[in-house]
Design a protein that fits this description.
The protein is of the alpha/beta class. The protein has ten helices and eight strands. Bound molecules: pyridoxal-5'-phosphate. Residues 35, 37, 58, 80, 165, 206-207, 222-226 line the site of pyridoxal-5'-phosphate. Residues 43-230 form the Alanine racemase N-terminal domain.
Length: 243
């Protein structure tokens, strides 16, 4: 299993480098976030040992479950899932360094309040629903700027940029407008020069569309299946594997 994982990781790193070079960007400007939902701690460790430094989880329960298995190995953990307000207290126990999925005011207010009470701060990205799909979380593009202005006033939250999940489509010409829209909102927000707000991060692009995202300015790409899930060998290979 380890050989496959390391092979997949190498493939993704090569894809990132190639995509960056193709659009005259420095590959070092783009961070790989390992989307580790459903992946057990021992497999995450393999990737961290291979030099990876950033993981992202979707559920507070999974962070909790894997915490002991990962805490001795240096890494950064971002939250990329839908955060329920009743989980705020919990999530603050597990050294999450950034919540990438801040998408509504009640969450922002409650998170800020709790952080203030604990004398902490939290980096956040604003999640924007650029695809317009009702099934996707994220603030509507038209509401993004007013929302950023409100969050900017909450002293325990440090806005670092934006996050989006593009349209799930193999067709570049359909995904591309989602990423472009995020970039456009970033530029609009930057122009406001809000005190304390940094707009440097664009977290966009996953296994299937990371090249497009990098071309459109991604600074963080979030990859799961192409590293942990995709089967590069036929099933017979797994049937012979002892686990
Ligand atoms: C699962 C997930 C990813 C990674 O998607 P893959 O297609 O598995 O690479 C990225 N972002 C978020 C928010 C996710 O939940």
């Amino acid at each position: 299993m380890e050989a496959i994982l390391l092979h997949n990781l190498e493939t993704i790193l090569n894809r990132i480098t190639k995509a960056a070079i193709k659009c005259n960007r420095n590959p070092d400007e783009i961070r790989l976030l390992l989307a580790t939902k459903t992946v057990p701690a021992d497999r995450i460790r393999m990737a961290l040992k291979a030099g990876q430094t950033l993981i992202g989880e979707n559920k507070v329960q999974e962070i909790k479950d894997k915490y002991a298995g990962l805490k001795d190995i240096p890494h950064e953990n971002h939250f990329i899932g839908h955060l329920q307000t009743n989980k705020i207290k919990d999530i603050l126990k597990y050294s999450i360094s950034c919540i990438q999925s801040l998408d509504r005011l009640d969450l922002a207010l409650k998170l800020n309040e709790r952080l203030l009470r604990e004398n902490k701060t939290m980096e956040v990205l604003i999640q924007v629903n650029t695809s317009g799909e009702a099934s996707k979380f994220g603030i509507a593009p038209d509401d993004a700027i007013p929302f950023i202005k409100e969050v900017a006033q909450l002293s325990a939250l440090r806005i670092k940029g934006l996050m989006t999940i593009g349209l799930f489509s193999a067709e570049t010409e359909k995904v591309c407008p989602c990423f472009r829209l995020l970039k456009q909102i970033q530029e609009e927000a930057r122009a406001l020069e809000l005190p304390g707000v940094e707009m440097n991060e664009l977290s966009m692009g996953m296994s299937g569309d990371l090249e497009t995202a990098i071309e459109e300015g991604a600074t963080i790409v979030r990859v799961g299946t192409a590293i942990f899930g995709q089967r590069i060998y036929p099933d017979s290979y797994y049937w012979n594997e002892r686990s």
